C-alpha cells in the first residue's frame, strides 16, 4: 500500500521530468511563476539521474510559487561550476543548490555568493561545511558503503577480486561512499575479498565503458565490479552483457531502474540500490525556501516541512557540517524492477 501511494506520487512528478528535459539539455534557464528565484547546479549535462533531481527540484519550487533556474556544465569539473555560480551571483538569485564537482575548490565562489546574501546549500555531492549552510543527502553515507560491500561479498561468494568503477576522482559523494567501503572491507569478515582497483569513468558513458574494459583486461579473475554511480553501473553492465561475461563477472552498485532493468533481467546485475532522485531534488526545493524565509538556518535540530514528503529535521553530518537525510537506500532486483523501471 505504502509502495502504491509512493508510486502514484512519483508518477505525478514524472510529468515534470519530461517537461524539464528541454531546459536541462540546453543548460539554460527555466522561466516560471513569480516570487524568488532558486538555482540548482548539477554536476554535468547528459546524466538521466541529474535530470530527475532537477525535475523534482523544479516541481517543488513551482509548487511553492517560486522560479527555478537549473544549470549544469558540459563537463563535471569544479572550474565549469565556478563560472556558472559567478553568473548566478550576478543574476542575484535567492538561493543556490550545488551538486559539487569538488569538496573544497568551490569554497571561494560559494563564499562570494554567501556574502552577496544568497543562501547556499549542497545536495547529492557535498561541498565542505564552510561553503554550505547544510547538505541534502540521499541516504546515510556509511550505510551506502556498508551495503555495497555486503553486496560485493555476496556476489563474489565470499572471496576473490573486486573493483570499483566510480564517477570523477573529485566527486565528494562517491569518495565518501568509497571511504566507507574501504573501512568496511578492513573487517575480518572480508579478509578474502581483494579490492584490486578504483577506476574513474567520470560519469561519462564512453569513459565508463573503456574503464570497465580496462578492468576486465587487467584483472581476468575479477568477480565483481561495484559502481556507485548510475552512469558507471549502466556502462559496466552493458560491457559484461556484450562480452558474454554474465555469470562470470557481476555488476552491482547504485543504478537508475529505468536504465538497469534489462541488466537486472539478464543477470549481469543481479541487484543494485538507489533512492528516488526526484524526491532528492524535491526535498532540496523545500530546503531552499526554508533557508530563504529564515525558517531554518541549517543548524542541527532545525525542523521544516517538505511538502508531500512530510517533516524533516537537520542533523549533524560526519564531516562536521549538517545534513538532512531523505531515507534509506532501496534494493532493486528481479522481483520488483518491473514496478519501478517506468517510474525513474
Ligand atoms: C550519478 C551521479 C550522482 C550520484 C548517482 C548515484 O548519477 O554521480 O551524483 O548520486 O550517480
Structure explained in plain terms:
- The chain is an alpha/beta fold.
- Helices cover 44% and strands 19% of the residues.
- The protein is built from eleven helices and 15 strands.
- Strands 2-1-3-4-5-14-13 form a seven-stranded mixed β-sheet, with helices on both faces.
- α4 (107-115) links the parallel β3 and β4 (119-123).
- α1 (2-25) crosses α2, α3 packs parallel to α4 (107-115) and α7 (205-218) crosses α8 (230-242).
- It is elongated and about 55 Å long.
- Alpha-L-rhamnopyranose (RAM) is lined by residues 43, 47, 49, 124-125, 167, 171, 173, 203, 229-231, 254.
Helix-strand blueprint:
Blueprint: H1 2-25, E1 37-41, H2 48-63, E2 67-71, H3 78-90, E3 95-98, H4 107-115, E4 119-123, E5 135-137, H5 141-156, E6 160-166, H6 172-185, E7 193-200, H7 205-218, E8 222-227, H8 230-242, E9 250-253, H9 257-266, E10 271-274, H10 277-293, E11 303-305, E12 311-313, E13 315-316, E14 322-325, E15 330-333, H11 334-340
Parallel strand pairs: 1-2, 1-3, 3-4, 4-5, 5-14, 6-7, 6-8, 8-9
Antiparallel strand pairs: 10-15, 11-12, 13-14
Helix pairs in contact: 1-2, 2-10, 3-4, 5-6, 7-8, 8-9, 9-11
The structure holds alpha-L-rhamnopyranose.
Amino acid at each position: 500500500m505504502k509502495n502504491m501511494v509512493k508510486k502514484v506520487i512519483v508518477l505525478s512528478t514524472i510529468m515534470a521530468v519530461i517537461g524539464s528535459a528541454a531546459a536541462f539539455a540546453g543548460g539554460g534557464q527555466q522561466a516560471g511563476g513569480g516570487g524568488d528565484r532558486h538555482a540548482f547546479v548539477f554536476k554535468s549535462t547528459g546524466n538521466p539521474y541529474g535530470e530527475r533531481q532537477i525535475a523534482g527540484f523544479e516541481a517543488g519550487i513551482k509548487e511553492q510559487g517560486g522560479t527555478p533556474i537549473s544549470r549544469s556544465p558540459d563537463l563535471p569539473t569544479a572550474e565549469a561550476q565556478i563560472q556558472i555560480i559567478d553568473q548566478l551571483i550576478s543574476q542575484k538569485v535567492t538561493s543556490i543548490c550545488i551538486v559539487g564537482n569538488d569538496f573544497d575548490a568551490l569554497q571561494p565562489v560559494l563564499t562570494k555568493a554567501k556574502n552577496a546574501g544568497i543562501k547556499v546549500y549542497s545536495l547529492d555531492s557535498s561541498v565542505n561545511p564552510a561553503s554550505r549552510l547544510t547538505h541534502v543527502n540521499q541516504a546515510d553515507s556509511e550505510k551506502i558503503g556498508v551495503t555495497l560491500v555486503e553486496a560485493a561479498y555476496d556476489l563474489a561468494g565470499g572471496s576473490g577480486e573486486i573493483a570499483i568503477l566510480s564517477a570523477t576522482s573529485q566527486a565528494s559523494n562517491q569518495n565518501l561512499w568509497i571511504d566507507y567501503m574501504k573501512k568496511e572491507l578492513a573487517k575480518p569478515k572480508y579478509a578474502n575479498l581483494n579490492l584490486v582497483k578504483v577506476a574513474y569513468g567520470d560519469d561519462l558513458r564512453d569513459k565508463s565503458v573503456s574503464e570497465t574494459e580496462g578492468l576486465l583486461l587487467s584483472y581476468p579473475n575479477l568477480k565483481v565490479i561495484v559502481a556507485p554511480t548510475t552512469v558507471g553501473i549502466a556502462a559496466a553492465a552493458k560491457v559484461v552483457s556484450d562480452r558474454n561475461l554474465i555469470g562470470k563477472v557481476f555488476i552491482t552498485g547504485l543504478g537508475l531502474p529505468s536504465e538497469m532493468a534489462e541488466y537486472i533481467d539478464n543477470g549481469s546485475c543481479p541487484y543494485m540500490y538507489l533512492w528516488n532522485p526526484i524526491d532528492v531534488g524535491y526535498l532540496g526545493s523545500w530546503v531552499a525556501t526554508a533557508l530563504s524565509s529564515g525558517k531554518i538556518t541549517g543548524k542541527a535540530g532545525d525542523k521544516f516541512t517538505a511538502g508531500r514528503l512530510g517533516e524533516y529535521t537537520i542533523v549533524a553530518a560526519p564531516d562536521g557540517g549538517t545534513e538532512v537525510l531523505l531515507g534509506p537506500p532501496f534494493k532493486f532486483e528481479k522481483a520488483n524492477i518491473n514496478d519501478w523501471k517506468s517510474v525513474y
